[in-house]
């Protein structure tokens, strides 16, 4: 039955649902003026998170789906950080008062490509323009191959609480095929150095579905990784979209595993991590039993945003930097992707908002349903609809896909309670997509459901 369902649903191209509506629905109807009004209307004391994008790397990993630029020189990075500081100041000027910040996330690219003093300066500026407390979680994405001792010390000095290390695979054959040579020893040194500096939460990012990858190589990567006992794992399926990311054309498509092999790899990784004592969180995260993410899932308060699953309950996410996306009560706003245009907009004293989306009441309802399905594998449609003042029948009777999923044994519908069956949780994106009113409208290619 699993093979039949995987064949039927697993090849679908679906969003990861880190937001709803998803980015293909954004338009240039949202710009500087709208975003400024949204910021200015934030009530004092609004719980906020910050995302800072640093779009630079020293070399290109061919699987990468991020917005990044390759540079061997430091000058473009220094120039960019000056623009980023100006943007922070511009945002702060529109706020009625410094907002309390629960989470700060540095993404990339490779955020730790900047000099230690520059990172410390950015943190000092954010503490000056926002209200960061001792309880603020500060997370940084890290490439272990380029992390220096001085930068490690700076992360500890700045109060960083969580580091996400890109691992992907320790198989040398796979590493050569994706242009990312990274030894276990490099990863171990980075992990041990971070913990010694006081960065106590360590995440490893793994990928399945890469060229030449096998079940055995996936399990071997897990075996080596758990020897370092990171607190969390994120395990993603490789999304091969060479029409969108041209560097992915360097990957040999003939060496990519098919849908059945991808499913076997994902399940083998899951089994190995669970056997090692990690708890499965949602679709693709794993955490040690004492981790706060486990408790959030137990309590039904796990959330999902552009960084994946999170314990962050903040309603507001302010995106800073080129291509960064933010969410406010009114909707989404994304900055210019091209570095030059981003810098020009900020230099003129205006926000670099290139596009966005103003949420409707129906969007908010569907976003709530999708988030609970993705986080809990179940949702009480009546309860969610009640929060939005909508009759549950309006949703349940208008989505024929739900009946198809139920007939195929993917979900159970008990009145208004929808549950994903335990043995079909790998299809949770297919279930979430039933609530997506925009799916298929944009023509944008998404990643495989499995």
Average pLDDT over all residues: 94
Beta strand %: 15-25%
End-to-end separation in angstroms reads 15 Å
Helix content: 25-40%
The coarse overall form would be globular
So how many helices? 16
Number of strands: 21
Radius of gyration: 21 Å
Structural class: alpha/beta
For the sheet with most strands, the description reads:
9 strands, mixed
Low-confidence stretches: none
Tell me the strand order in the biggest sheet: 10-11-9-8-7-6-5-2-14
SSE topology sketch:
Layout: H1 2-9, E1 13-14, H2 32-40, E2 48-54, E3 56-57, E4 69-70, H3 75-94, E5 100-108, H4 116-129, E6 131-142, H5 149-157, E7 162-168, H6 172-178, H7 184-196, E8 201-208, H8 215-226, E9 232-237, H9 259-275, E10 279-281, E11 285-287, H10 292-299, E12 303-305, E13 308-310, E14 316-320, E15 325-328, E16 331-335, H11 339-347, E17 353-358, H12 361-376, E18 378-380, H13 381-387, H14 392-396, H15 400-407, E19 411-414, E20 417-420, H16 428-432, E21 447-448
Parallel strand pairs: 2-5, 2-14, 3-4, 5-6, 6-7, 7-8, 8-9
Antiparallel strand pairs: 1-21, 9-11, 10-11, 12-13, 15-16, 16-17, 18-20, 19-20
Helix pairs in contact: 3-4, 3-11, 4-5, 8-9
